[in-house]
Amino acid sequence: MMLQDRFWEQKSLRQMNDQEWEALCDGCGKCCLHKLEDEDDGEIYYTDVACKLLDITTCQCNDYPNRLQQVPGCLQLTPDADDVFEWLPSSCAYRLLREGKPLPSWHHLMSGKADSIHKARRSIRRRSVSEQVVDPDEMEMHIIGWID
Questions:
Q1: Which terminus of the chain has fewer CB atoms gathered within 10 Å of its CB, N or C?
Q2: What is the band of 82 on the pLDDT scale with cuts at 50, 70, 90?
Q3: Within a domain: residue 103?
Q4: C-alpha pair distances (Å), 45 with each of 17, 53, 125
Q5: Residue 14 — φ and ψ, nearest 5°?
Q6: pLDDT at 81 (0 to 100)
Q7: Which NCBIfam families match (predicted)?
Q8: Cα-based distances in Å from 142 to 3, 25, 94, 132, 138
């Protein structure tokens, strides 16, 4: 099935079919980074620690169809999952469209190139580590400030 040209400008997130919804993902991998929430003020802090299923070279999930069963804390993003959007980075296509903002020029749907996100250094490629090599008690030492 071919995607309609600039479908994201003509449909709301709720109106998109599965193929359109999945095509919005820019492949940055930021949603697969562990986040810490401050208990006092609710502030969310990103770490450079990626989920065990994320291939940190390609920024793709190694078992996307079964990720929710394998990773209990994995968040499933749907148009109605209001509580999940706040956990997404401000550069996420889903969040941008939900907020009525345009897709950035480096997004693959704008550039026509799947690797434009990596060339623009907007992904976690070469900037993260797998949770398999990080002691959970040291997660705070991995808080980063380069997420947007």
A1: N
A2: confident
A3: yes
A4: 32, 21, 19
A5: -70, -25
A6: 87
A7: PRK05170.1-5, PRK05170.2-5
A8: 39, 25, 26, 14, 7
Phi and psi, residue 99, nearest 5°: -90, 5
Three-state DSSP at 30 gives helix
H helix intervals, 1-148: 18-23, 67-70, 82-85, 93-98, 108-111, 116-119
Q: How crowded is residue 114: how many other Cβ atoms within 10 Å of its Cβ?
A: 10
The tally of domains found in the chain comes to: 1
Task: Examine the pLDDT at 2 and tell me if it is beyond 90.
Answer: no
Q: Is residue 9 part of a domain?
A: no
User: Is residue 50 included in any domain, yes or no?
Assistant: yes
3-state secondary structure of 143: strand
Give the list of residues 6+ apart from residue 69 with CB closer than 8 angstroms, or none: none
Residue type, 1: M
Judge whether 11 lies within some domain: no
Q: How far apart are the first and last CA of the chain?
A: 32
Residue 22: pLDDT above 90?
yes
